[in-house]
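tokens incoming
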């Protein structure tokens, strides 16, 4: 076991022992510590991570959502924190469903404000106690949550400024597939057998090689 993994194990054991009601389990993968936390205990856990002398995770880096439609609690809210004093990073995950709000951590980390609003706008994840729980990226009156796995690619209306017409236009959203036809190394179709332009490499001129 490397020193880094051993140190992360010790940190995980410390946090789990001090916050047994908040931490369900922890794991170490790719050199990072991840805590799986109870949704209703997230504020207490985040405050502990921020104040504890062995943690000092005083900087919140990111809050984002992940959608697993096949699960009963389909959403994961993922938090990333940084301890400048300890030179450590940590990830915290909580699960929730479409109806149950996750407690907001804005009072502990004001920078979480827009991140939580983005998770609400893109996934429909609600945060209880948030001071301004409204959309932040989509158009006014937008319906649905565009980053959910079951969000349809067509059938919605977008609002944009048309530079040619010099006005705001409303038009149906249609995500076309035609731009997926790359010359080679297409992530959807795989690499072609001959890279365009190389087909001439196999050709020989009359008399060559004779």
């Amino acid at each position: 076991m490397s020193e880094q993994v051993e140190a992360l194990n010790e940190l995980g054991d410390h946090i789990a022992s001090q916050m047994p009601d908040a931490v369900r389990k922890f794991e170490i993968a790719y050199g990072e510590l991840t805590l799986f936390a109870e949704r209703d205990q997230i504020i207490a856990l985040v405050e502990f991570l921020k104040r504890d002398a062995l943690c000092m995770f005083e900087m919140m880096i990111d809050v984002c959502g992940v959608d697993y439609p096949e699960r009963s609690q389909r959403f994961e809210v993922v938090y990333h924190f940084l301890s400048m004093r300890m030179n450590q990073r940590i990830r915290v995950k909580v699960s929730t469903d479409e109806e149950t709000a996750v407690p907001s951590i804005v009072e502990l980390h004001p920078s979480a404000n827009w991140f939580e609003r983005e998770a609400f706008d893109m996934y429909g994840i609600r945060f209880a106690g948030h001071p301004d729980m409204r959309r932040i990226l989509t158009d006014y009156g937008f319906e649905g949550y565009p980053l959910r796995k079951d969000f349809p690619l067509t059938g919605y209306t977008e609002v944009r400024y048309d530079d040619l017409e010099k006005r705001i236009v409303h038009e149906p959203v249609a995500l076309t597939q035609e731009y997926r036809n790359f010359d080679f190394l297409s992530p959807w179709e795989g690499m072609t057998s001959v890279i365009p332009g190389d087909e001439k490499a196999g050709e020989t001129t009359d008399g060559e090689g004779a």
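note: Residues 3-149 form a domain with the Beta Polymerase; domain 2 fold (CATH 3.30.460.80).
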